[in-house]
UniProtKB/TrEMBL annotation:
It comes from the Bacteria. GO terms for molecular function: hydrolase activity. This is Pimeloyl-ACP methyl ester carboxylesterase. One of its GO terms (cellular component) is membrane. Keywords: Hydrolase. Coiled coil: none annotated. The keyword Magnesium does not apply. InterPro entries: AB_hydrolase_1, AB_hydrolase_fold, AB_hydrolase_sf.
Length: 312
């Protein structure tokens, strides 16, 4: 697996860490890779999900960098980027990316976001349409949490206490928990990626790099944000990639969100709803996929992104 260049960019707002892949890193295209040269092609900017890091795109980038310059940022409070006490709302994080792109000399890009990062990408594309040629939203929580079946403010905010930002007694405990969630597609490469999400403390315990308070601020922002207002403002082509089956035309959305199947069905209905509000939209349905599509199906996702970006 080709190693990306790891670097930092200092903007007037924040210091961001990023990974960069480009075709100069290798002289040959490996079998099954996409394209032959990154020259003159639109750059790709990849935004990770909540509590993850730029490393989450390692497997996808392997299939893309021969044809595109690929940049993945550690977003505010994540990975090796700066961790200010405030500024974790979607608009501020999106503006961080805009400033980071400008500092790197990037003009128009194709923007790919996963999960919470997809919501950041959505805000960026709506606020700065001239900067985004194509937008890819990977398993994006399209509809505001307040509209999820049975969801309340307290339940949504407290979900972070039960989520992946828990404190683990040891590195082995952390890896065992992650393996249980990703057993079907776990690999040594994925283990290395997941390890970038956490830090080991002097007592041997492990915690997420994203601080709990910053995660709470992010969830508060997601609760208050009005995502549905953005979709009609998008002027670029959009590809939705939900980890969900395509809903049946005569079916009904689930009345509650308790099981994995109910969450997947709800995501399908949400994706179908917002697709109708976007002027130029296509959907790649991924039934049975884990939320971390970029880890479970990296080549499928990369092929979809490459084909989509190649379209005029």
């Amino acid at each position: 697996m080709t190693k990306p260049r790891s670097a930092f960019v200092n903007t007037e707002i924040i210091r961001l860490h990023y990974l960069e892949w480009d075709s100069s890193l290798t002289a040959q295209t490996a079998p099954g890779e996409i394209g032959e040269s990154a020259e003159d092609n639109i750059p790709l900017v990849l935004l990770h999900g909540l509590s993850a890091t730029a490393n989450t795109w390692q497997l996808v980038a392997q299939h893309l960098y021969h044809k595109h310059l690929v940049i993945a940022f550690d977003l505010r409070g994540h990975g090796l980027s700066e961790q200010p006490e405030a500024g974790y709302d979607l608009v501020t994080v999106a503006e961080d990316v805009v400033h980071g792109m400008a500092a790197l000399g990037l003009g128009q890009v194709a923007l790919v976001g996963h999960g919470w990062g997809a919501r950041v990408a959505l805000v960026l594309a709506a606020r700065h349409p001239a900067l985004v040629s194509h937008l890819v939203l990977v398993d994006c929580p399209h509809v505001e949490p307040r509209h999820w079946p049975g969801m309340t403010h307290d339940r949504f905010i407290r979900a972070s206490e039960k989520g992946p930002d828990r404190h683990y007694a040891s590195l082995n405990h952390f890896l065992e928990a992650m393996k249980a969630e990703m057993e079907v597609f776990w690999s040594p490469e994925i283990e290395n990626i997941i390890l970038s999400y956490v830090q080991q403390l002097p007592d041997g315990s492990v915690e997420e790099r994203l601080q709990r308070e910053h995660g709470r601020q992010i969830r508060e922002s997601l609760w208050e944000d009005r995502a549905l207002l953005y979709y009609s403002k998008l002027s670029c082509p959009v590809l939705l990639v939900p980890a969900a089956p395509e809903p049946k035309p005569d079916g009904d959305p689930p009345e509650r969100l308790e099981t994995a199947a109910e969450f997947a069905a709800a995501k399908g209905y949400m994706a179908a709803q917002v697709a109708r509000a976007i002027r130029r939209c296509s959907v790649l349905w991924m039934p049975g996929a884990n939320h971390d599509i970029q880890l479970q199906h990296p080549q499928t996702l990369a092929q979809a992104v490459a084909s989509f970006v190649a379209e005029l």
